[in-house]
Amino acid sequence: MTKDLTESRRTRYTRAAMQDALIELLRDQALGDITVKALCERADVNRSTFYAHYSNIEELLHDIEDETMAWVTGTLDQLMKQPDPASIEHIIERVCRYIADNRNHLQVLMSPKADVGFQQQLLGLIYGRQSAVEQMQTDAATPQEAQMRMRFAVSGSIGLIQHWLATDLAATPESVAHIIFTMSMPSSR
Fold it and tell me: Distance (Å, rounded) from C-alpha 163 to C-alpha 157?
């Protein structure tokens, strides 16, 4: 958990610089190989500034992950309130646009270079929403079938997003969202 500091513009800028520096370093190095010194040099901050915000590099990574999870949680909450399947596709498009806008961070977060627990946490967040199973898989014969379909849809969606990020977003966010939507909701075709 990040240390409590007044959220001034300068504080937000400093945290963003350190987050960006960590993501850049994670592209070439494993998390355990990154030093506070290297991070501070890349972010152009001194060590005391780093330690004013974080206790260690892992805490900084968790801050990045927490921000992403907070956004995903809010978006999922919106998704579950949508009665119209077309609105669900719109929400999926918003998620894909968010991924495109934050590709530098998410290319690392969705890869094994960072904390592999992040993807598990993301899956747990989605799987933990029973209303998602009920709403997105209404044509399933049994609750067990709905749960299996949801797990397949989420795992496939994450796999597709990983591929999309690995190809440096070769497709548009809208086309990726449409594929996720049509593959996840066979009854809405």
Answer: 10
Query: Over the stretch 71-110, which tens digit does the pLDDT of each residue have?
Result: 888 887 877 776 665 677 887 888 899 999 999 888 888 8
Give the whole-angstrom CA distance, residue 15 versus residue 10.
9
**Cα gap 186→88, rounded to integer Å:** 13
Could you state, in order of their start, the residue ranges of all structural domains in the chain?
Answer: 9-59, 64-188
pLDDT of residue 172: 96
- Classify domain 9-59 at the CATH class level: mainly alpha
Q: Say which residues have a Cβ less than 8 Å from residue 181's Cβ, sequence separation at least 6.
A: 88, 89, 92, 188
Q: What is the pTM of this model?
A: 0.74
CB–CB of 165/99 below 8 Å?
Answer: yes
Among residues 107, 86, 123, 87, the alpha carbon closest in space to that of 24 is found at 107
Contact 113, 27 (CB under 8 A): yes
> How far are the Cα atoms of 22, 64, 106 from residue 164, in angstroms, in the given order?
22, 21, 11
Output the six-digit token pair for 28.
Answer: 């070439």
Mean of pLDDT values over 148-176: 89
Residue written as tokens 């991070």?
Answer: 39
Amino acid at 20: D
